What we know:
Layout: E1 2-6, H1 19-25, E2 29-32, H2 47-60, E3 65-70, H3 74-83, E4 88-94, E5 115-116, H4 134-143, E6 147-148, H5 149-152, E7 168-172, H6 177-185, H7 190-193, E8 198-202, H8 209-212, H9 214-224
Parallel strand pairs: 1-2, 1-3, 3-4, 4-7, 7-8
Antiparallel strand pairs: 5-6
Helix pairs in contact: 1-9, 2-3
Amino acid sequence: MDIILIAGMWLDATAWHEVVPELERLGHRPVALTLPGQGDGDTAATYDDQVATIVSAVDAADGPVVVVGHSAACALAWVAADARPEKVARVVLVGGMPNADGETYFGFFEPVDGVVAFPGWEPFEGPDSDDMSAELKARVARGAVAVPAAVTRGVVRLHDERRYEVPVTMVCPEFTPEQAREWVEGGDVPELARARQVDYVDIDSGHWPMHTRPRELARLLADLS
């Protein structure tokens, strides 16, 4: 099965470079995306451009696909299910949750000079990054891409309630499955509260398991496909 991989803010397709060969070895067809404005050099890219790229990747697959979103890109993975509910077999959310209709895609950091640059590791101290070595942090920071404000300030639009029939798996890195279930069942994640099936899977990592637990993450994704 095709597995579409969408990395979170500041990351391009190379974030999955250790996950991809393991998924291939396990018999799947991983498609790691570099999104407009997030590694392709397009400084004028918008949120809608990113959505269009993801939907095009879903359309290009021969059959049903699994769409994997990491961190902020969990919102993009959910938008793919909304746009193509008949073709997305499962949405996998790694370390993040979908936005509701009408919400700003990524409003956690204010743009400066038209972009949201990687803010350094200070905002992610603690469970998010405790499993990353200083060398790994330096490598990830060197490869981080400043994301255009027109991406981060895009407005999420959802149209098709058939998305709630698409099975969802939450992969829980720096938080536990119990915490995630509590957030969903408590109404903090309205989109998932309405989903027909939400499964919760633990992974012993911080916020970036594609870097710190790539083989484990690949095996987990393969088992869901």
